Each structure stands twice: as C-alpha cells, then as structure tokens.
Amino acid sequence: MYMDVNGHKTYAYTGGKDFNPAQRTVVLIHGVLCDHSVWALQSRYLANHGWNVLAIDLPGHCKSAGVPPATVQEATAFIQALLDTQGVKQAALVGHSFGSLIALQTAANMGERISHLAMVGTAYPMKVSQALLDASLNEPEKALHMTNVFSRATLAPPSGAGSWVFGASLALGRRVLASNKQVNVFHTGFNACNNYDQGLQAMAAVTCPVLMVLGEADQMTLPKNALPLIAQAKESGVSLQVVTISHGHHQMTESPDETLNALKRFLIGV
Amino acid sequence: MTGYADPHFDTLALHAGSQPDPATGARAVPIHLTTSYVFESTDQAAALFNLESAGHVYSRISNPTTAVFEQRIAALEGGIGAIATASGQAALHLSIATLMGAGSHIVSSSALYGGSHNLLHYTLRRFGIETTFVKPGDIEAWRSAIRPNTKLLFGESVGNPGLDVLDIPTISQIAHDNGVPLLVDATLSTPYLIKPLSLGADLVYHSATKFLSGHGTVIGGVVVDSGSFDWEASGKFPELSEPYEGFHNMVFTEESTVGAFLLRARREGLRDFGACLSPHSAWLILQGMETLPLRMERHLANTEKVVAFLAAHPMVSRVGHPLMPDHPSHALAQKLLKGGARGAGSVFSFDIKGSRMQGRAFIEALKIFSHLANVGDSKSLVIHPASTTHFRMSDQALAQAGIGAGTIRLSVGLEDADDLIDDLKRALKAAEKTADKAA
Fold first, then answer.
1. Are the beta carbons of B401 and B163 closer than 8 angstroms?
2. Is B15 helix (H, G, I), strand (E, B) or coil?
C-alpha cells in the first residue's frame, strides 16, 4: 500500500491484507540495499495471523520517494511519522541490520508506543570497514559482491523451491541502488550504520520486550558484536530473548522458518 | 575472493544447492520420489499454502531433489533462481505463457532449433501469439520488427545448427529500450561457455537433455531468471504487476521485487500447465552437471580437431563453425564466448560436396557417430537436418536458418579424437565412392 509520509509517497508491503486500524501493527524495517521484499514470508504469516504488516521501503528506496535517511536518527523520525500518519497508537518493530538500529532508536524515542523490539542480524557498534565504505561509494558492484559473500553462510539454503539466495541478494542490491539516481543509498546506509553512536543509550531507554535474532555464521554483524547491546538490555531489566540460528546475515531468506519461528514466539507467543 | 563463501564455477557445479542430507548423512543428493509431503500440523499446512513458509507441498510445484538442480543452474548462470521443467520446450512455453497471452507478439531470431520454430510459428499463433522472425545478425531487423504489443525478444546463444552467435549485449539493449525482456536459449553453449544474463539477457533457458545432463539419458529443461528486468516499470506486464485473482490476488512484483517472474511461473505455470520435471530426471541431470566443466573442455578439444580435419578434406565444401575465419560469427564468437571461437561448442554443421545420395552414404557409413535426433551427448552424434529436425521448415525458412539440403550436423562427443576422425574419414570415402558408382 502507498501512504503519504512527510509529503512523500511511501510504500509498505502489507502481506496481502488491507490495513485494519482495529488490529495490532508490526513495522518491518529492511537493511542497507534491501527493500520490503526481504520480509515476504514473515510478512505473509503475520498478516494472516491478525497483524497489520507495514514492511516498508525506506525513503528513497525502490517504491518509496523522499530523501534516503543519512543517519539512524533521520530514519527514526521517518518511522515515527509513518506511525503517526497511519494513526497507529502502538506498534511492534522488527528491523534487520541497519533496520535493527532504526528500530532500536525508535523504540527508545517512542516509549510505550512500541510494544516489541525485534533486532535481526544486529550489532553495536555496527562498524563498517573503510574498505567496504570506500567500495560502496566508488565500486558499488564490488562492494555488493563483498557484502553478499560476507552475508552468505551456505551453498544450500533450504529455499523449498529453486531460489538462489546469493543471486537474489545481488539482483535486489542492484535494483535498490538503481532506484535512486540522486543518492548512493548503499554508501549512505553504510555510513549511517558506521556513524551511529547512541546504541547503548537507546537500549537503556527501551522499555518494551526485546528479541535479538543472531546468525551463528554471520560475517557482517558477528554475533559477538551484539554482546554490548545484550549486556545493556540485561542491565536495563527489560524482557530479553536471544535466538541464535545456524546461518549467516541473510537470516530472512537463508533461514526463513527459523527467523519466523523466533518472531512468532516473541510477538504471538506460539 | 574465493573459497566456500565465494566459489568458482567448477565448485558450484558440484556443490551449489546441496549439502549432506541432514536426515541420513547421504553425501549424494537423495532422489525424493514422492508426490507430496506430510504436514507437521494444520498451521504448517496453511503456512505452506499461504507462502508463509518455504517448504514443499506437491511435487508438481516443487520437490527437494529438483530444487537442488534449480539452485545449481541458477548459481552457474548467475541468476536469482530457476524453474525446472519436463523438457526444454516446456521451459520455452512456460516462459512465454507466463509473460503474455493472446494479442501479444514476439520477435525471434530465425536461427532456431526446429522445435522452437514450430512452437512460435505454428502452435502459439493458434493461441493468438504472433512471432516475427529476423536474422540474428541483422540488428536493424530486430529494431524494426518490434510492435506496440511486442512482449519478448528471443534467440539462441549460438543458433542451431549454423552457430550464429547472438549479439546479446546489442539485442538486450534493443529489448530494454523498448521495455521488453530478452530470453536466450543457451542449450548449446551452457553456462560454461557463455552467461547470457551477465551480458544483458533477462531470462535464459536450457534443454537440460543436452550438455547439462550430457549422457543422452534424460529429457528435461529449466528457465533461469536474472531478476534484473523491472516488470512494473515496463508497464507491459500486467500478469506480474497487477493482482492475480488465481492466486490470492497476489501482485507478484510487490511480493518479490526481483523474483516476480519465477513466482508466477511456478504458482500458475507449473500448477496449471503442469510440465514439471521428475525428481529422478533432476537427479540424472545433477549427475551430469557435476562434470560439466570437464566434459565441455573435452567436447571443445575434440571439436577443434574434427573441424581442422574437415576443413582440409577435399570432399567438404563448407565447415560451419565459428573457428573458421570466414564464419559470419567468427568475430562475435571471439568477443563473447569463453576461449573465443572454440567456445561456440561442439554442435556444428558442414556440407559434403556432391549429391543428396552421397550425403546418405556418408551417414550410413559412420560407425562411431550415431545417427539420431539429439545433440550434447557424451557420444558423438550425426543427423541430416533438412530431412529430420528441421523438416517442417520451407526451403526459404531453411535457407534463412543457414541450412542447405546437403548439410550434415555433428555433435562431437567425448571419444578419442583420432577415432572420430578415422570414422569421418571412412564415411567421406564412402560418399566419394558413391559418386564414382553414380558416374
């Protein structure tokens, strides 16, 4: 569905269901050089089980107009505006990678308006190597290849039907990059991750239950790099679940069922 | 980069899509000869039907063994995924039927396998889909043949049997300038020799019956999507960009930004047309693919020797392989194919000097080359296209496809090259003697 957020046409995949103000809402936030479609299977499950799903394209990405967020805080302001626009009083947030930082900061800012915070493939600080930052700006195809190599954990993802996750990620990255002729959303997104320095303060301010879904073989956001956030969440006393699944950084596509199961238990309790 | 996370072609040919079976530890890909799969619960059943979970329901739609083949060929081609079909012809039909209906138009190379020509020229016309055929090298003809209702450009990577090399970068640009995709039949080249998707093609398909399986034991096909064509931006494919009442009112381009074509092809095409691949056939093709790089190198090495022998033989008037400097595609083959012109493959034609009777004498004298209607076998094959694979085509269409009445097509196999040359030498002698008797 399309919405107007901050004067810009904004797209959110709803899992095939119309938005129903009477239902609970979950916002799914993608990572760098991705879009709503990385959440396809999880979106459809949640949409078919009583949730309004808003799997967004971030501003300036694919179907959404506007200026791509250059910082986590800018993206957070967008999520807040999105919820206000839709009249959502309370929502669950699920974010992957860059999206997990956006979800974290939004949960910190919005207090009780956020019912759940799920961070998939997360780390803090989410540092990006200078080589990858430079390549994302000057040699995006090379950087895209590197990113996908670091993200992949298996040559045999259990797709069910003939999908080659590595190729699909490359194709999606190229499509997202080409969707914005003005701004290199690859470099902008990586910079936003690299520069974000409010993670621990944000986690300290979170009041809702927190889930972290980590990839055992994740080379982009190493599981050990989530430990500072885990420690902060424990110190804050929020309800915390940490689920480690066997694959890499492509959690939603390399391990779709394991990722969904973690979200189901967290959001629905099944 | 290199290694497991970023493997090369030869490693992907052996490992892409498969891992030791988690249930039994079997290292080889198990053959899942089952029609259907027990649901863990009613919730799981619903999740599979609603595309919330990534499992299997019914083997017409997907199967674990077939999925390994689909992932492997997608990896080798540089695509996002693939759909295996009952044959190469089924892959071509599935591609077309997913993208268009009555009132649509295709622009196709005229240098095609006879079966593809039949489908486009005769059968699809009955269903309201018209095709304009153009010579693959006539770039202006491709442009001028495009109509407002054109939905697809189509050609073979190297045309059967003249080995006209398709200028994929140029033809794909023409396609994209007009908002339509380019589909390439890469059966004769395989991804070992050319990767059409990396050159600009949007979809590629194979008759896996040929070099992919490689042993003449199985019929199968597969179509691979690059994920690069923007169906929504084109505005010409409501089949993919508007709600489909036949499947949850799904808008395939919203559901999957890069996988809309494969999604509809599987959820509608396999479901309704039903031309799925048997898992046993998928397994046989996988066995062949494991040795694809090794086999292709031997095919090419043998072909180089056979071409050199034929080119020097007094009974041969023409050798139609891009290895020959006077072949119309010599320069393009050097540019686009792995290893240059030798990468045009091991299926080619040549003309015997003399009568049709001499041609028959040649074929009947062969002992190692088998006279049959197939290519891409590990064993060497021979056929007379004008009386077999292309017999439905008019003389004019034959000429347009580069086939003469005396043209012989060879598929050079993996035998010792000296033995193949000896076989050809004796058969050419037999043809020569036939001329002497006639005189």
1. no
2. helix
Flag whether pLDDT at B345 surpasses 70: yes
| DSSP state for residue A68 in the 8-state scheme | P
The answer to whether B270 touches B83, Cβ cutoff 8 Å, is yes
Scanning every residue of chain A, which has its alpha carbon at the shortest distance from the alpha carbon of B248?
A16
Domains of chain A, first to last:
2-267 (3.40.50.1820)
CA distances from B50 to A83, B39, B205, B433 (A): 27, 14, 28, 70
Instruction: Give, for A99, the enclosing helix (H) or strand (E).
Output: helix A98-110
Instruction: Using CB atoms, pick whichever of A44, A150, A158 lies closest to residue B51.
Output: A44
Residue B59 contacts residue B35 (beta carbons within 8 Å)? yes
- Tell me the sheet residues that pair with A3: A10
Distance CA B106, CA B121 (A): 10
Q: In CATH, what number does B9-288 get?
A: 3.40.640.10
The answer to whether B180 and B230 have CB atoms below 8 angstroms apart is no
Q: Which CATH superfamily is domain B292-438 in?
A: Aspartate Aminotransferase, domain 1 (3.90.1150.10)
- In chain B, where the domains are located: 9-288, 292-438
Q: Sort out which chain B residues have CB atoms less than 8 A from A175's CB and list them.
A: 227-228, 230, 257-258
B109: distance to nearest CA of chain A, Å? 27
Encode pLDDT of B92-102 as tens digits. 999 999 999 99
Each residue of B14-46: pLDDT tens digit? 999 998 998 899 999 999 999 999 999 999 999
- Which of B1, B7, B256 has the CB atom closest to A40's CB atom? B256
pTM score of the predicted model = 0.96
Q: 3-class DSSP state for residue B79?
A: coil
C-alpha distances in Å from residue B108, one per residue of B119, B145, B369: 12, 9, 32
CB pairs under 8 A between A and B: 142
Chain A contact set for B18 (CB, 8 A): 155-156
Query: Which SS3 state, helix, strand or coil, does residue A56 take?
Result: strand
B328-337 LR contacts (CB < 8 Å, sep 24+)? B328/B137, B328/B164, B329/B137, B329/B158, B329/B163, B329/B164, B329/B165, B332/B137, B332/B165, B332/B167, B333/B158, B333/B163, B333/B165, B336/B165, B336/B167, B336/B168, B336/B169, B336/B194, B336/B199, B337/B158, B337/B165, B337/B189, B337/B193, B337/B194
Read off the tokens for A103.
Answer: 């979800």
Strands (DSSP E) along B34-164, which ranges? 81-85, 105-109, 130-134, 150-156
Read off the pLDDT of residues B363-390 as tens digits, 9 standing for 90 and up. 999 999 999 989 999 999 999 877 777 7
